[in-house]
Write a structure and sequence with these properties.
The protein is mostly helical. It has a domain at 12-41 and 71-103 and 140-189. Helix content is 60%, strand content 0%. The chain is built from seven helices and no strands. Helix 2 packs parallel to helix 6 and helix 4 packs antiparallel against helix 6 (140-170). The radius of gyration is 25 Å and the shape is elongated. The two termini are 23 Å apart.
């Protein structure tokens, strides 16, 4: 069974290092969500039923029906791996979203100085037609906020896909992933 990703040390430097943040999210998703079918198949115990010699009597053209997964194994996987991984990613995204709201952004002063300098600049567009263009630099907090917004959208899509496969194999039909995750959070709060 796969193990959930370890929670990184949460610091503003981690959040502003967009490569490290994206790599953590990508690795965590690849370990659990992207390989969910393999993770669920690993929960099946094929030797439990014993070997059926008639299974080799003819060629199986149609895919064999999926073996049901033991409900205890499914529940353990969801609680110890899936929800734990989702919660870790949520914690990282929530922390970094808080960092993105930081009003003491050191780049703010630099951007204000650049804007003031650009207002004073005299441009002769006949000599350089491109010099009149001004490309304001995006603050790193704005860039981080956009990244967090995009990653939360990706999380929603991935979790919905993963949960669809989990419910198909484990039989939790009728419950949405948000509700299942919230129930798990409530059950682990007292621990």
């Amino acid at each position: 069974m796969s193990q959930p990703s370890n929670k990184p040390t949460l610091t503003p430097q981690f959040c502003f290092n967009e490569t490290a943040l994206r790599d953590f999210l990508r690795l965590s998703r690849a370990t659990i969500d992207d390989s969910i079918i393999q993770n669920l198949n690993a929960l099946v115990t094929p030797a439990r039923d014993g070997f059926d010699p008639s299974s080799t009597a003819e060629r199986q053209v149609q895919p064999a029906r999926r073996r049901p997964i033991d409900s205890a194994a499914c529940q353990a996987f969801k609680e110890k791996v899936l929800f734990q991984s989702w919660q870790t990613r949520s914690d990282v995204l929530n922390y970094c979203a808080g960092v993105a709201l930081d009003p003491t952004d050191p780049d703010l002063i630099l951007r204000e100085a650049e804007t003031a300098k650009d207002r004073e600049r005299v441009v002769d567009e006949r000599l350089d037609p491109y010099s009149g263009r001004f490309f304001p630099r995006e603050a790193r907090t704005e860039s981080l906020a956009n990244l967090i917004r995009n990653e939360r959208g990706v999380e929603g899509i991935i979790r919905a896909r993963t949960w669809g496969l989990v419910t198909e194999r484990c039989g939790d039909v009728g419950i949405r992933w948000e509700e299942a995750l919230n129930r798990w959070r409530e059950s682990t709060e007292g621990r």
